[in-house]
Amino acid sequence: MPHASRSKSLPELTALFTEVQQHFVNVIVPLWQGPGWNADMALPYEALDAAHHPLPAQRYRAMACARQLYLFSSLIGVVDNAEERAAALFRSLQRHFHDAEHGGWFYSIDAQGKPLDQRKDLYTHAFILFACAHYWEKSREPLVESTLNAALEVIGQRFATGDGLYEACLDRDWMTLQTGPLQNPLMHLAEAFLATLQVRQDSATQQALLELCTAMHKRFIDPQHGVLMEKPLGVVDNWYEPGHQFEWYFLLQSSALLRGSKLHSALDKAFAFTEQFGVEQPSGAVRAMLDLEMDERAKDSTQRIWAQAEYLRALTLRPHSEAVVLHQLQALQQRFLHAGGWHECRDEQGEVSRKDMPSTTPYHLATCYRGLADYLR
């Protein structure tokens, strides 16, 4: 976006961003280098409590491993031992979760490392592709690119439904579970395709991405309001999530390939509508779930840190946004960040409703801060 004229809030914004970035590097990242790391399994625990103790391990998810692989890949050259941690996470992804018999990756293993939920879900595979693209950019190791290629192949051959969309979940042996396509895994697949295209030319992936976005516009965009529903149009009990609107908007607006597409135009037009009903004022809190059929009433008014981060990141790509970016960064810092880490959720009244800190959340903060850094540059 053009940066020709910047308001007086810019120095304040730059100073505040420096603060939250230091909090990320000095407080949040060390949680996952130390107490959040199970050295025996070479995996992150699923979550830490407020006192930085791991919650009792019941499972480890491939998706959580992949998100942390992205996190430490992004920190190579920024924090000590990030390269070693990324390498360990990549090895663990293959060792613990790869299905040698049927291909692809299991959803989860149990506390002892045995396969637990052996289904194959698109959300997990999208994050594996996303993480491998970022890690390959830093490492250039052939094994990482071959894993990236394997993820692309299995997504294209197993999950694709032939109309630009993809099944959300399949059985271990790739038999159908009749889930059909769902918005959230498809968004992260688009994100993973974009990450792949950033690190190499790949005409097949580019074509798959364009077809995916065309199909998303056709099957998921509410024709009246232009918002992206969580399930395909016509499915009963549908809803939309402001956090996902903002997340999609950022992906589309930041891509020269997707900017100007029908999907991008719809979400660009619907941005103000999503803000009006999805963001509380004056707090700036992002509501979790809204129901179009109930006059925009919230199905869930929980305020989640990831949605807050996605709104902030999306705002960095809106014109004349300095004041609101500053306001939302202040909201993120004051409402969610604290000396010991972060608050995952607040309830409708603004009270902290979740004390644990999941290993998956730093991914959202890392991508948000990357967007802010690009904005301030």
UniProtKB/TrEMBL annotation:
Alphabetically ordered keywords of this record: Isomerase
Q: Which InterPro entries match?
A: 6-hairpin_glycosidase_sf, 6hp_glycosidase-like_sf, AGE/CE
Gene Ontology molecular function, alphabetical: cellobiose epimerase activity
Spell out the Pfam families in the cross-references.
GlcNAc_2-epim
> EC?
5.1.3.11
Give GO terms for biological process.
carbohydrate metabolic process
Task: Give the UniProt family note.
Answer: Belongs to the N-acylglucosamine 2-epimerase family.
Q: What protein does this entry describe?
A: Cellobiose 2-epimerase
Q: What is the lineage of its organism?
A: Bacteria, Pseudomonadati, Pseudomonadota, Gammaproteobacteria, Pseudomonadales
